[in-house]
Amino acid sequence: MGFEFFSPAFILLIAAVLICLVKGHARTTIILIAPMITLLAIWQIPDGVQSTVNFLSYNIEPVEGSPLRRLFATIFTIMVFVGGLFSFRIARWYELAAAFTYAAGAIGVCFAGDLITMFVYWELMAIFSTIVVWCGGTPGSRAAGMRYAIMHFLGGVILKVGIVGVVLGTGSIQIQPMLATDFSTWMILIGILINAAAPPVSAWLADAYPEATPTGSVFLSAFTTKTAVLALILLFPGESVLIGIGLFMVMYGIIFALLENDVRRILSYSVVNQVGFMVVAVGIGTEMALNGAAAHAFAHIIYKALLFMSAGVVIYRTGKNKCIELGGLFRTMPLTCVCGIIGALAISSFPLTSGFTTKSMISQAAVDGNLVWVYMALTAASAGVFLHAGIKFPWFVFFQKDSGLRPKDAPWNMGLAMIIFASMCILLGVFPEILYALLPYPVDYQPYSIGKVLFYLQLLLFSGLAFFVLLPLMKRTMTISLDTDWLWRRAGFSLVKLIEQALSSLGEVISQQRNSLQKLLQRMTVRYLGQPHTADSQERSVFARSWRVGTTVLWIAGLLSAYVLLYYF
C-alpha cells in the first residue's frame, strides 16, 4: 500500500512523537529528515479522492489530491524543514514537537476531502499552535496563549455550527464551492475568517505571535492564516464580500504596523495586511485571481518566515524587541541584515523578488475584471507595505542610530535557514515560471514588462522618499497601540465589573425591601392572628381573641346574607 492512501500529516505526527522520545543527534536527524519524507509523500498523491472511510453513514475522505492542495502542502513542508533547521539548536523539545504537530494539522487540512476531516485537523492546529505560544514561557505568553485559544476555539465552534447546518441542509460533507447565502454558509465563512485574522477579530495574531519564542514565531507565521486562505479558495471562490473584507485587512494591517514599536508586532500586522491581498483575490474568483492567491500564499510563507527569522535572531542575540532599543546592528550582524532586507524587498513587491511575481498577479486579476477601484486600492496598499515592512523594519532594526549594541551574527544553522529562504525569494522572482508551473490553473501571465517594472519602481521610490521625509513622525515611543481586542480585554472587563456592581447594588435594595416586607408581615400577623404561646384570656389580636356568642352569631348571619345576595343577584 503506497503513500497515497495515508495523509502525509501522519509522518509529521510520528516525527513529533519521536522528538519527544529521543535526544541529541537522533532528534536533529528526525527534525530534518521527517519533512523530506513528508514532501516525498505529498508528491506521491495523485489527483482525486484516494481513500474513503465510512463513519456514521458518511463517507470520510481523509486524502484527496489536487494541484492546489499539493502546492500548499509543499510550502508547508518546506517551512517545517527550514523552520526546524532554524530552531533545532535553541528550541526546547516540546516546542518542536508542538510545532511539528501544528504543521501536521495544516498538511492534514490540505488533503482533507470532506468537511469533517477538515474540522478535525483544523482543531488540531488550534490546540498545538496554542502550545507553541505558551512555550514562550513568560506570563505574557501564557495570557496571550489563553486569549489565542479562546478565540480559535470560538472560531472552531462557529465553523462546526456551519458545517452541521450544511450537512443537515444538503446531506453532503464534501468540500465544494459555495456562497454565503444562508446562516450555515455564513457560519463557515466567519469561522474561516477568524483563522485568516480578518478584523475585527484579528487582534489575536498581533497579541500572540510576539509572545512566542523567536523560533516559535517563525512557525506561527506560516500555517494558520494560510490554511484559512486555502479553505477560502476551496469553499468560497468568487464570494464578492471577500473583496471588501480583504481590502479592509490590507489597510488595517498597514496602519497598525506603522504605529507599532515592537519588531514582531510590526511583522504580525504585516501578516494581516498580506493575507488581505489573498482574500481579495479569492473574492475576485477568476482563474488568474485564484492563481494569484495561491502563488502569493506560497511566496508569503517564505518571505514572512525570513523576516521573522531575521527579527528572531536579533531578539535572540540582544534580548530586545523594541524599535527604539535597536539600531546600528548591520555592523556586527551583516548576514542577518542582508537576509532581512531581502525579505523586506520581497514583501514590498520589489522587481526580481518573489513578492513582485505573485502579488502583481492579483492586481492583474483586478484589471482583467474591470475592478478599477480594487486595483487602485491594492496599488496604494503596495506603497504602504513598503513603508512599514520594506523600510521601517530594516531601518529601525539595523540602521537609524547606533544603539551601542554589538551582538554576534546568527548561529550557523539560523544563518543557513535564512540563506535558503532569501535565495528562494530571489529565485522565484527571477524565474517565476518555477512556481507558475505548480499553480492550479494554466498561467498566461508575464510579470515583467517595461511599463510594469517602471511603475513599481516609481511607486516604491516615492514611498521611500515619503518615509524619510516623514521620519520624525515615524519614530516610535514606549506607547501601546490599542486594537480591537481592547473591547474585550479592557472595555469588556470594565463592563462586567460595572454589571457586577449594579447587580450588587440591586441585590442590596432587594434585600432591604425584603426585610421591610418581612417586618410588615410580622406586625400584621401579630395584629390579626396573634402571637404563639399566648393564653386565650390574654390574647388581644383580632382573629385570635375570644368573642362573645352573640357577636359571633351576628357575624355568621351577616356573612350568610351577603352570600345569598351575591348568589341570586
TrEMBL record:
Q: What are the entry keywords?
A: Cell membrane, Membrane, Oxidoreductase, Transmembrane, Transmembrane helix
Q: Keyword check for Cell membrane, yes or no.
A: yes
**What compartments host this protein?**
Cell membrane; Membrane
Q: Name one Pfam family in it.
A: Proton_antipo_M
**Recorded topology in the membrane:** Multi-pass membrane protein
NADH:quinone oxidoreductase/Mrp antiporter transmembrane domain span: 112-379
Task: Check the record and name the InterPro entries matching this protein.
Answer: ComplexI-like_HydComp, ND/Mrp_TM
Q: Which NCBIfam families match?
A: PRK12668.1
Tell me the protein's name. Answer: Na(+)/H(+) antiporter subunit D
